[in-house]
Each structure stands twice: as structure tokens, then as C-alpha cells.
Design brief:
7 strands; Helicase, Ruva Protein, domain 3; 199 residues; 7 helices; 41% helix; 2 domains; two-stranded antiparallel sheet
Length: 199
């Protein structure tokens, strides 16, 4: 095994913790950063630090924000009777890119996954129902991914919503099975929202 100076070894090790970054990519990135001007590496370090110190999750919808509540929850032009339920905040950004959806959001911060020990109490499901009961919500759009866990989560929510006098819809099958919303192009995602159906 190659021996790197301790600071470089630490950087490579930390970079490998990022998704899709293996040992070789982490090494390439680390050596690239060594060549960067010190002012650029300082800006990068500062940007990483500020992400953790200045950003938080919206207390209402779970979006990533630098204000409470977030800019979407406080936007009076949004349709306040429609809530789109998503898995993670990055799914919100994917839907916003379509410029078709004008309602509110609710991020669950994950999906049901009994094999991984994730149940309803581990997600922001209770907060969703608190919003439904306290706000004038008429439609809940289930926009979880079309993975096994995403489908199970949508089915669970559908069953829980049956007793309420609201419309429950699911985004259409324009999304490929096993696909993640953050990687879907805007046109496909817009068509999926447009073709949502009652479940």
C-alpha cells in the first residue's frame, strides 16, 4: 500500500466518504486540490463549513434552507391546498426545475425500509398528517421514487390517507422504475406530474 503524507492521506480518506467517490477518484481529487491556488482551497473549505453552519432543514416542509420557514413555504403565490410528498429535499429541486408544479412540499427524509430498520416513526410522516389536519390541504401528491421502498412508502401513505376527505394522487409512470427523481430530466418529470392519477 502506498504511503501518503498524513494530511494527504486524511484528505483522500475524507473524500472517499462522499457518494460515488472511490479510492482512485478520491486520490485524483486530492492531487488536483494540491495544485489549486491556496485562495481556491480556502474558498472550498469555507463553502463546506458554511453549508453546515448556515443551512438547516425547513421546520415545515423539510427543504434545505437558510431561513425558517423556507422560501417555498412562505411564498404566498404557491397553491396552499396541494402538497407534494417527496423522499428527500433534492427531489424538491428536481420537481422545481420543471416549473410546472406550484404547490407546497413535504420531505419525508427517507422511505420505509423494514430490512434497514426504518419504520413510519423514523420518517416525517406524523408531521405530514399534522399539516393535513391544521392546513386547508385538498390534494396530496405522492412523488416517492419508483423503487421497492418508494412504492411501499406510497402504499402505506395511501392507506393512511384513505379515511381523510382529500384527493390522493401518485405521479405517473413517466419515471423509470428504479430511477431517482434527482436524475430525471425536466420534461419527463413535468409529464409525470401532469399525468398523475388518483390511487
Amino acid at each position: 500500500m502506498l504511503h501518503y503524507p498524513e494530511p494527504l492521506a486524511r484528505l483522500i480518506n475524507e473524500l472517499q466518504k462522499l457518494p460515488t467517490i472511490g479510492a482512485k477518484t478520491a486520490q485524483r481529487l486530492a492531487f488536483f486540490m494540491l495544485k489549486m491556488p491556496e485562495s481556491d482551497t480556502t474558498k472550498l473549505a469555507q463553502a463546506l463549513s458554511e453549508v453546515k453552519t448556515h443551512l438547516d432543514y425547513c421546520s415545515v416542509c423539510g427543504n434545505i434552507t437558510d431561513q425558517q420557514p423556507c422560501y417555498i413555504c412562505t411564498d404566498t403565490r404557491r397553491d396552499r391546498q396541494t402538497v407534494c410528498v417527496i423522499e428527500e429535499p433534492d427531489d424538491l429541486l428536481a420537481i422545481e426545475r420543471t416549473q410546472e408544479y406550484k404547490g407546497l412540499y413535504h420531505a419525508l427524509m427517507g422511505v420505509l425500509s423494514p430490512l434497514d430498520g426504518v419504520g413510519p416513526k423514523d420518517l416525517r410522516i406524523d408531521q405530514l398528517f399534522q399539516r393535513i389536519h391544521s392546513e386547508d390541504i385538498k390534494e396530496v401528491i405522492l412523488a416517492t421514487n419508483y423503487t421497492t421502498e418508494g412504492q411501499a412508502t406510497a402504499l402505506y401513505l395511501t392507506k393512511q390517507l384513505e379515511s381523510l376527505e382529500i384527493t390522493t394522487t401518485r405521479i405517473a409512470y413517466g419515471i423509470p422504475v428504479g430511477g431517482d427523481l434527482e436524475y430525471i430530466d425536466a420534461v419527463t418529470l413535468a409529464k409525470a406530474l401532469e399525468g398523475r392519477r388518483r390511487i
